[in-house]
Amino acid sequence: MSVNSKLYEGKAKILYTTEDPEILLADYKDDATAFNAQKRGSIIGKGNINCTISSKLFQQLEAKGIKTHFIDSPAPNQMRVKAVKILPLEVVVRNIAAGSLCQQTGLPLGTILKQPLVEFYYKNDALGDPLLTRDRLYLLELATLEQVETITHLALQINEFLRDFWQRCRITLVDFKLEFGVDSHQQVLLADEISPDTCRLWDTAEADTNRRVMDKDRFRKDLGNIEDAYQEVLQRVLQAVGTEV
Question: How far is the C-alpha of 37 from the C-alpha of 88, rounded, in Å?
Answer without folding.
Answer: 17
